[in-house]
Records
---
Amino acid sequence: MSGLAAGYAHHRARHEHARLALEKVLAGCAESGIDVLPVKGVLTGRLFYRDSGERPIQDVDLRVRPEDLARVERTGKRKGWRLLSRSWAYHTLAFDLLGFLVEFESHVGPPGLCGLRVDDMLRRARASTAPLGMPHLQPELHDHAVLLCVNAFKDKMIDAVPGAIRDLELLPAQVGFDAKRLVALAVESGVATISWIVANWLVETRRSVVWRELRDALGRVVPRRRYAWLFSRAIRSRVPPRQALRVLARAGSDRVDRQVRALCVMAVEPIGAAIMGIGRRAANVSPVGRTVESTRA
């Protein structure tokens, strides 16, 4: 078997592994009455690509309402899912299920960065069986597009996994995609500037023709042109240290109140992690994993 074919077979096997882990999660959460929305690679690998072997997958990404996180944790404990991390600041949970990383988040990006709510995504999601072969919810295409843009921006594009970037390149070719709808939703969610930065990066570094049109459309509604120029220059030059870029990225929302919230959440997360560490030591429990945010910073 050639190296390329072996790589495809490995990625297909990983997707099947992810599907089995997801099946257990969805069944457990359904018993508890928790709505769960799969996003990113576990879906895009089967929806955007001719073969899931073309799309590497590292984890299963899920979205739930913020008020459901505690119930997810209780469900996981009852079902024997191994808790890897919990962040009270970012409202996230991570479990090891069948040896696969499963991450629950309750916001689109870090809290404060994007105005698109998970509750809105769940309300607009549709029930489906394909392509996973089991009942699940699928995000509305443009909701998913905003999430994919925010996710790539959070990782400053240069730190995003290749699959996340390729998802964005393939996104406009999906049936039902409407550039005007994406632009309107980006404006409504306060991430027009973020979306323009992502589009501009795809045009400049990946020579994407379809994203050139999206960039031009977003350019007509971008409210923070100086910020967009500064951030684009920073990631292009790669001069600022990663922590400086991370702080700059947290201030990406088009709304000042959300910028403040995102920066405050980033500032208090180490305090929460320290408190959890003290609690673990007091209970004589060894930490089993890093926080989800620390693995994506």
Note: The chain has a mean pLDDT of 91.
---
Amino acid sequence: MGEDSKESYTLKGTTGAKGEFVRVTSTFRDWIKADGSTDFPPEAGRYHLYVSYACPWANRTLIYRAMKGLEDVISVNVVNHQLFAGGWHFDASDGSTEDEIFGKQRLREVYEASSPGFDGRVTVPVLFDKKTKRIVNNESSEIIRMLDTEFNAFAKHPDVHFRPEELCARIDEANDFIYPSVNNGVYRCGFATTQEAYEEAFVELFAALDKLEEILSKSRYLAGNSITEADIRLFVTLVRFDPVYVCHFKCNQKRIRDYPNLWAYTCDLYQTPGIAPTVNMFHIKNHYFKSHTMINGYGIVPLGPEVDYTLPHGRENM
């Protein structure tokens, strides 16, 4: 999600010719493989996640870690919710942690320790190998697939699988639709620097939400009756939508609460065992409203809205 730069914070992306937000590619793309085909075999206690509770991409990895039962297998450090000029940093306040691997103050220093001379974008999540002191991967879509399949020998819930072979096509189709229009769509709205770019992203976002509302009127989850990768990838955006994106990113045509099926679906997922503890609304709101000074210059965090994801949803009867 977020980056630090040696000059200023601009998120993990650049601005295109029309003022549109353009997300950049992650840097570290190695894989942990149980078949021994890479330099990173799965081991209990060897790997570590650097995350931000605020970041939807990092939230995915925390959900997978919890639902697979990998809490005792993969350790975690949490950066502070606020980004300063130096980027993501560590402390032990408000649910954040210190860096237990290197004792560094900033996540950039972890990147530099892993890759001397590194001068790229510093993002979360990070999957780190404590044995070789190297970053394995910082692309969330790949990290969650490693957590899903490569650590089953150590997982408390190895039978939980978010990408069953028979649903791969449906999951990929959902991901390909949701990512540009919804997951990244809210950022395309919020970080647009021209009216044209904003309106294009806005129209696409709410057309996608309308389509998802219709899909979820017929099915409990996006690919049927079980939670899949597509649901988790969508959920992390939906749970941030009403508290942050409606106001902060000007995504204000409708709230998720105005969509009966999307709202019940969000509550359903939130109440799934393991998911709620990964959602830290204090970190989420304080990060967005305080860190994005180009949008919210005074860094004032709104007290509302009150959003209760523990309300009955009725989706279990579908």
Note: The CA atoms of residues 35 and 41 lie 8 Å apart.
---
Amino acid sequence: MRGFGRFLAVAAALLVAACADDPNATAPNPAGTAQNDPYESTNRKVFEFDNKFDQALLLPTAKAYVAVVPEPARDGIHNFLLNLDIPITFANDILQGDLTNAGQSFTRFAMNSTFGIGGLFDVASGAGIPPHEEDFGITLGKWGVGEGPYLVLPFLGPDPPRDATGQVVDIFLDPTTYIHLRDHFWYSAARNGMEILDLRSRNIGTLEGLERESIDYYASVRSLYRQRRNNAINNGRPDVTNLPDL
């Protein structure tokens, strides 16, 4: 999530930090501490709020989007949004010292921005250059920075300190931050809104199945979030030192 969504992440992080000073709101939970989730009680309340918001607004909107917009058009929007994020991935490739992936990112952006008509078509994948995603939260993890206590933020879901910090830094790694158009609220709102809608519409069945089959939906999301982030940090290698439980 970019732009205005990143600003919301910072604001929400400050809100959670303020709640952490309230012993009644965020008294450390011994069981949660074992999962590096010392404020599990508050996190669960925020998670419940986020889930209700999703069920009331995001999910119906995502279903309507899928019903109304043809799949080829949705794929084009998805490709366009991914292409906008490639410069951030490229910058993090460089910061991680991964010149191979940096070269792939540069080539993907060049090919998709030209032959792919501004990124609407993913011609690079067809040419054998698959996509990958990096952000500064992943970069910090590869530099050895710990996740910090697990946090769930209003409207944003899981966002521990390392990842929240990475989101802020990614704003400055995004070239569109320095384009005059970036000053316009509607550009940021539209881009972030479409990223959320695209992400939610592509995970309707996945999340519904996870919630239906989970004994503890919160713990399942926490575990899967960490698995995904650890997998990205370790380049797909299992992290035997930090295996979360469902």
Note: The first strand starts at residue 152 and ends at 153.
---
Amino acid sequence: MKDLLFGAPTLTTVTGLVGRIGLFVIFLVWSLRFISQPMGEEVADSIMHLINLPFHESGHVIFSPFGQFMTSLGGSLAQVLVPAICAIALLVQTRDPFGASVCVWWLGESFLDLAPYINDARALRLVLLGGRTGAEVEGHDWEAVLGTLGWLHHDHTLARGAHGLGTALMIGALAWGALVLMRQAQHLRT
């Protein structure tokens, strides 16, 4: 298990390691920006939001055969499933623990990206994809999901939970990635 999670690929080169360290620094700086901002302010304006958006929107279509509830939940579900599946594939199929750590970071960022959406379930002030707020278009996904469950009054608590989980996943992914990089540096082939 240790080799699977922290293994050093035999093809590690100086160039490859330097590239990974550069990527790690970018994700570290990004994490500090995302985590230090009030919920949603930094994430919604980042390129990561635009990366998450197609997965979110396609999730509505993918889960639509399972009824209205799953259609509403499906966008957010797909948004977190895609990076989780990528992490598992990179870890198990390609034995790339650093790549998997990046995907776990992405999973955490996806939760941070969803937190403002969840938080807006009652207020419906968030500007949606079409340029109008949830109040102007008869609600949005998280209003429907939480309303169906009778949990609408828990929107702020669930949003803080999503934000906390996302933060923990990002920090854990960075720690994992740093350990992988250290181990790869020890096994460097030039």
Note: Helices lie at 2-6, 14-36, 47-62, 68-92, 97-119, 141-149, 155-186.
